[in-house]
């Protein structure tokens, strides 16, 4: 598109922000102004706010639909706020929250978070952010890889949540973007906040003093996969949000995940990259990165997802997959070698064709 506006075919539809039915707030969380503000914002949305008498969460809803409508505002314990290495995406991950309000039938959280799928948002943000400075220059991915050294020390904030999907209640992402923007990283090779999102409510982020130290990566997928992404904004909305963030000077990333060989996949993924190019056309320096992640599951995540989404048409048949051992010794199921090779060849060619300035960070 010569004027840099999104393709008129890409119809967006307003997304309703998530409103939890119940918000459980611990006494510890209420001792932090950030926790109090979350409770107040949730109450203003019409949620029932329950002030707990103890810091331990108990009697959580078992039913999936009740759990997905529950937010707990809690204090992250010292072990939960300790950043962890997270290759190949970034040097470290840290968590602003755990859980997500959307209903993706492949959700990777099914394999990583135990218990009912409520959202837990952390009130002690200052303590969480205070863990990061000692780690400058200490990572094993961008801190040491010459090809990614320009990114500086990278901190990933979306391993266990979609932080933008709950931002209208938490405010944690804006605070973290400001924190990274003002960070005095003298002596280090730079610092960068990274997060991935399927959400589109970027308006409050557009004017923040981010100083280009935040990379927002949009989780996008080909036509034919949206039916597996219940409750998440449409891909067209995410592309429009990406365009706005790029124009606001943020660094941009594409997280293409999970790549699924749906009928007509080659043309569908090629069209997706063409749409990305249209959205970013005319943006001077999006510093675009691409992460390519194929669909996979474990026995544990399949069991959880089969329980949450019994009617899903998503193929998760071990007999159609290759079994591989993870570095932790558990089994994961990926597409067979020939399918992987076909997907990789086609997607990498599409990226090169439509987004020649993009850097592909990894394929997995
Ligand atoms: Fe899971 Fe991401 Fe979907 Fe949320 S948006 S349900 S975290 S896959």
What does this 3D model show about the protein?
The chain is an alpha/beta fold and 364 residues long. It has one domain (22-363): pyruvate-formate lyase- activating enzyme, CATH 3.80.30. 27% of the residues lie in helices and 21% in strands. It has an eight-stranded mixed β-sheet. β4 and β5 form a beta hairpin. Residues 100, 102, 104, 107-109, 162, 198, 232 line the site of iron/sulfur cluster (SF4).
Q: Helical residue percent?
A: 25-40%
Query: Which CATH first-tier class would you pick?
Result: Alpha Beta
Query: Radius of gyration in whole Å, from Cα?
Result: 20 Å
Return residue spans where pLDDT drops below 50 for at least 5 consecutive residues. 1-5
* CATH architecture descriptor name: Alpha-Beta Horseshoe
- Arrangement of strands in the largest sheet: 4-5-9-10-11-13-14-18
Provide the descriptors you would attach to this structure in a database record.
binds iron/sulfur cluster; pyruvate-formate lyase- activating enzyme; 18 strands; 364 residues; alpha/beta; five-stranded mixed beta sheet
Q: What's the short story on this structure?
A:
This protein has ten helices and 18 strands. With 364 residues, it is α/β, with parallel strands linked by helices.
């Amino acid at each position: 598109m010569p004027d840099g506006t999104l393709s008129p075919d890409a119809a967006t539809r307003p997304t309703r922000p998530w409103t939890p039915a119940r918000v459980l707030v611990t006494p510890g969380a209420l001792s932090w102004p950030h926790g109090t503000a979350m409770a107040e914002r949730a109450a203003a949305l019409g949620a029932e706010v329950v002030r707990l008498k103890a810091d331990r969460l108990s009697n959580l809803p078992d039913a999936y639909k009740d759990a997905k409508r529950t937010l707990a505002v809690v204090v992250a314990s010292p072990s939960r706020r300790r950043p962890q290495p997270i290759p190949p995406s970034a040097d470290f991950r840290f968590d602003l929250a755990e859980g997500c309000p959307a209903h993706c039938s492949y959700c990777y959280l099914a394999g990583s978070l135990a218990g009912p799928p409520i959202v837990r948002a952390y009130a002690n943000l200052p303590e969480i952010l205070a863990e990061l400075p000692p780690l400058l220059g200490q990572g094993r991915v961008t801190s040491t890889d010459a090809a990614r050294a320009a990114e500086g020390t990278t901190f990933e904030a979306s391993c266990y949540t979609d932080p933008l999907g709950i931002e209208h209640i938490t405010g944690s992402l804006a605070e973290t973007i400001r924190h990274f923007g003002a960070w005095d990283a003298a002596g280090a090779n730079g610092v960068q906040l990274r997060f991935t999102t399927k959400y589109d409510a970027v308006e409050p982020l557009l004017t923040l003093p981010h100083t280009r130290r935040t990379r927002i990566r949009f989780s996008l997928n080909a036509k034919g996969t949206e039916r597996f992404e219940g409750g998440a904004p449409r891909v067209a909305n995410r592309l429009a949000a990406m365009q706005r963030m790029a124009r606001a000077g943020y660094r941009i990333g594409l997280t293409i995940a999970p790549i699924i060989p749906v009928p007509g996949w080659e043309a569908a993924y090629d069209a997706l990259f063409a749409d990305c190019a249209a959205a970013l056309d005319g943006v001077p320096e999006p510093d675009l990165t691409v992460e390519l992640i194929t669909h996979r599951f474990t026995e544990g995540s399949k069991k959880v997802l089969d329980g949450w989404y019994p009617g899903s048409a998503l193929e998760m048949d071990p007999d159609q997959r290759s079994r591989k051992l993870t570095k932790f010794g558990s089994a994961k199921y990926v597409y067979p070698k020939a399918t992987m090779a076909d997907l990789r060849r086609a997607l990498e060619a599409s990226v090169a064709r439509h987004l020649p300035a993009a850097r592909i960070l990894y394929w997995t």
